[in-house]
User: Fold this.
Amino acid sequence: MSITATELKMNLGKYLLLAATEDVYITRNGRTVAKLTSPYQNKIDTVNSLFGSVPATVTLDEMQEERINSI
Assistant:
C-alpha cells in the first residue's frame, strides 16, 4: 500500500495497525521516502519458507534446547 506523508500524519494509528500485515510505503511529492513494516515480518517469511523442513515429531521446546546447547 502506498500513502502520502500527510495521510500518515492524519491517521498514524490506522497505518501502524495495517503495517502488522502489509508494508506501507510513504510518499512525498510523488516519490517514495519511507517504508513502514512489521519488525516480525522477516521472521514470519523465514518460518514460512522453512515450513515442512522440520520433522513433525520435533517439538518447539526440543528445538530451542538444541539451539541453546549448540552455542
The two ends are 40 Å apart (CA to CA). The first helix runs from residue 5 to 10.
